[in-house]
Amino acid sequence: xxxxxxxxxxxxxxxxxxxxxxxxxxxxxxxxxxxxxxxxxxxxxxxxxxxxxxxxxxxxxxxxxxxxxxxxxxxxxxxxxxxxxxxxxxxxxxxxxxxxxxxxxxxxxxxxxxxxxxxxxxxxxxxxxxxxxxxxxxxxxxxxxxxxxxxxxxxxxxxxxxxxxxxxxxxxxxxxxxxxxxxxxxxxxxxxxxxxxxxxxxxxxxxxxxxxxxxx
Length: 216
Ligand code: AP5
Ligand code: MG
Fold this sequence. Notes:
By secondary structure, the protein is an alpha/beta fold. The protein has helices at 20-31, 38-48, 51-62, 68-78, 97-106, 122-127, 167-181, 183-189, 203-215, and strands at residues 8-14, 35-37, 87-91, 111-116, 129-131, 138-140, 194-198. It has one domain: P-loop containing nucleotide triphosphate hydrolases (Rossmann fold, 3-Layer(aba) Sandwich). It is 45% helix and 15% strand. The two termini are 26 Å apart. The site of BIS(adenosine)-5'-pentaphosphate has 33 residues, from helix 1, helix 2, helix 3, helix 6 and strand 6.
């Protein structure tokens, strides 16, 4: 008899700065499935100056959302790739009800992890964040500093302060989250697949709670 292969198809939900990227990197290590971050894909497209990047840039800098049809088309192609066969961790998708409904036509989900962090601490997390554009690792100048200032621990890349991590854009991103993405907690709650995790503890503690929640 063949060994049972457990497919893990996960979504990480959470406000900007909730820790989706931080936790996704740790889940990749633990479960050996890829992180698919729509934000990372879009930032790469902006950097490369592709048509997708040109379209996305204005929405990202304003703290709004890239149009649903663009994102859904992009994810339809991404989820077909071979590395998704054992599962995936979706970081930043879906973000609207239209995206969630489209995702239902593309694949089945095992769990939606909702990382819950009080809105008032998110601004400090984002304005102090440093990100690695090469590998997507994230740090924080106070909460989670890199070993060498400005240098990524994981790949030695140069850390940057994301363009949308300024106070004005963060406020718009938080409003966008509240109006468009937060309703997905109920959307998935009704399907009985939400794992709620308190996201304002220590990074390792949050991770332990996610793993524990997924095991249930
Ligand atoms: P995206 O890149 O997804 O940004 P976001 O959702 O705003 O989330 P962030 O990446 O800012 O936060 P995070 O939850 O990953 O937190 P992190 O782990 O880095 O999207 C960017 C833009 O792209 C959107 O605004 C939109 O325009 C567009 N876009 C993307 N997807 C789209 C979609 N599906 N549809 C339409 N448009 C889309 O942590 C944050 C900081 O906190 C770090 O410094 C970290 O070190 C620190 N930290 C993490 N955990 C803890 C902890 N437990 N304690 C203390 N500090 C912590
Ligand atoms: Mg992120």
